[in-house]
Amino acid sequence: MPDDLALLHDDIYLLAVNKPAPLLTQAPPAVPSLEARVKAYLKAKHNKPGNVYLGIPHRLDRPVSGVVVFARNTKAAQRIHKQFQEHTTRKVYWAIVEGDITPDSGVWEDWVRKIADEARTVKAAEGEPGAKLAMLEYRVLRRFDGKTLVELEPLTGRMHQLRVQSAWRGHPVLGDTTYGSTVAFGPPADLPRDKVIALHARRLTISHPSTKQPLTLEAPLPAYWEPVIGPTS
């Protein structure tokens, strides 16, 4: 059984884990992934000789840590996937960004476009082919040393939208060199794919696929955040 799996919830319908960065959520069999670790955990826990079913209704970018939920059966997978599709889930992220964000709270709106065949998003104009509206709410939690700890809640589900919407306002996420950060963050890494950024999926609220009751999952911050922002719960 994997001893480094940070479980947040485990029942017969769903399982939630605090994903470490820079682990992929899902990958081909030969590549390490959170999916593979969770399947190994379930096989060991339930002594299953064969394959383990695991539905993956959402993912986090490789350099991002935090809450990821998996479904244990097809019905649960369909119900949770539908919640993500219809934006009835509530996702709350924490980020450390460069500079001082002002005012203390607000809404950011931008038109974005994903670059075909690339893991990158660029600014777009309304009406431009491929352009989609990206919206988020933000709230400043703390300011320190020319940086801001901010809570971000996406109202749309665009690729990299939290990262680009912050960066376009002069506040790139620490360590996010893809979108202009010049400040190093996290453990040293020899390869670009092993670098992490200061973005963490802090809380996820869904409707439980069986009870239909709201379920809020909260993931502790990685230890490497503490030298930057100090102790947090």
Automatic annotation (TrEMBL):
Coiled coil: none
Domain (Pseudouridine synthase RsuA/RluA-like) ranges: 14-167
EC primary class: isomerase
EC number, UniProt record: 5.4.99.26
MF terms (GO), sorted A to Z: RNA binding; tRNA pseudouridine(65) synthase activity
Domain of life: Bacteria
A Gene Ontology biological process term: pseudouridine synthesis
InterPro entries assigned to the protein according to its UniProt record, in alphabetical order: PsdUridine_synth_cat_dom_sf (IPR020103), PsdUridine_synth_RsuA/RluA (IPR006145), RluA_PseudoU_synthase (IPR050188)
SUPFAM superfamilies in UniProt: Pseudouridine synthase (SSF55120)
UniProt keyword terms in alphabetical order: Isomerase
Family membership: Belongs to the pseudouridine synthase RluA family.
Protein's name in the database: tRNA pseudouridine synthase C
Annotated source species: Urbifossiella limnaea
The organism's taxonomic lineage, starting at the top: Bacteria, Pseudomonadati, Planctomycetota, Planctomycetia, Gemmatales
